[in-house]
Amino acid sequence: EGLKLLTGLDRHEEIQLEDRRLRAVSLPDKTLEEWIDLALSNRVEFKQVEADLAARRALVQAKRASKKPLIFAGIAGSIALSPNRDRLDNPHVFDPFNYAAISPLVGMHWQWEEDAQPARVAQEQAELDALVHKASFARKGIPFQVTEQYHYVQAKHTSMLAMKKSAQSARRWMIASYTDFEAGLEEAEKILTAMQAYVLAYAEYLKIVNDYNNHVSRLNSVSGVYE
Prior knowledge:
By secondary structure, this protein is mainly α. It is built from five helices and two strands; from the N terminus they run αααββαα. It is about 60% helix and about 10% strand. The protein has a two-stranded antiparallel ribbon with strand order 1-2. The radius of gyration is 39 Å and the shape is elongated. It starts with a helix and ends in a 5-residue tail after the last helix.
């Protein structure tokens, strides 16, 4: 029920296992440097930090610019035309129904707050510095996570191969002991000992396979590769 809830399946839907036998996944063929580059380009949180940094830098620049005067220039014009009215050609009388006017405009807006503006700039700069520190931690922390999981995968793969050989040797011992017992050359106690050794070795092998598969999955996860 918990798996259905996490995967969004209907509680009455039956879950079928893709493979009933535990098998080791293929060893990833990428180098450690390739995994790190993949993580730095794929990890969502790293992209988010970079976007936040750009926004924070722009906000700091905007706060610094707010203490400067805003100077603007433009052109304003107006025109009115009434063909059915007589036109007044008197420079001393304004005719609101027949006229044309245009004029350049120059202005300045300056919101001066001597103490408040530096405080706002300092606050935004402090938040930017905190985000820079967070980004620096991400640049170091993400490669560390990838490196850790990469070496775990390599170590587990080596252990898995060694344990597989051990389990195969124990299986051959068990088969040889049973054959000797059938031929009357071995006691039953020897068969039980060989069988116990094989069961323990194979169980340990399956445990290592499971650990190895989990670490490969974690390596993909910390690298931003979701399959």
